[in-house]
Amino acid sequence: MNITKRNTFLTGSFILTVAVLGCGGVSGIPIEKTATDFAKEICTKAYDCCTMEQLANNMAAGTTEAECETKTATNFRNQLQNMQSSENAGRSKYDQMKVDACLAALRAATCSKLTTITNLAGLPECDSTFATPLVAAGGTCQNDFECIDSVCQVPSGGGAGTCVAGVAVGGSCASGAHCAQDLFCDPRDGSNMTDDTCVVEQENGGACADNFECKSRNCSSSGGSGGTCQAQTQPVCFYGGGCSAGGRPGAATLLLMGLFTALALFRARRSVRSRR
Length: 276
Known about the structure:
Blueprint: E1 15-20, E2 26-28, H1 31-49, H2 52-55, H3 65-88, E3 92-94, H4 96-108, H5 111-114, E4 131-133, E5 140-141, E6 151-153, E7 161-164, E8 183-186, E9 197-200, E10 207-208, E11 219-220, E12 227-229, H6 258-275
Antiparallel strand pairs: 1-2, 3-4, 5-7, 6-7, 8-9, 10-12, 11-12
């Protein structure tokens, strides 16, 4: 993510003048419009392209398209308010052009494309935090998307965090240790939290230990301890799980969700543990 961090989630028109917005935000981010635009586009595509069984894995998808729009807009609204606070504090800068590009790509995406990706970041235009980070390593932060070439390590008890390099590939991310940018904290054995490991999300053909290491979420093994990432054999749903709206993995994740994504991936990992 160098200045282009992986993660996903916004929309609206960028206003530089100081004004009170519909959701109480101050200048910069059109919170209500952005949340509504994303919710409408995501849910329209989700209910056109995905099965109800797939959508059942995502609480934000609801059981009807209208419920999906309400819940998804709420998630985006909360995260956009968080991003507005970050911008007001001078820790990041909202990027309207990236948001518009993501929305345009989503509108143009066909079901044949959206049923081959496991989250919205599968669209290159949406693989972003939609924010420019302004905090250098060692500076104070609250969110990953605020850190320049680093991640935000927040104390276990809460409070202000610090932008740090993060744990490298193969290192332990147990006990709240934050993986470096573009890495995932893989739960490995769901019943043993001490073996959580920072890994790179692999393309098809890459080596993997479990499904979570693969962008396709399909780690196929012919025996032994290792496996290979392979394409899904059945259609998947871009909005079919907790991390569907997000793109940036691990500690680095928002649905802009930097914003929405971080929250989504955390929920997804908890779900992985509960199913194992």
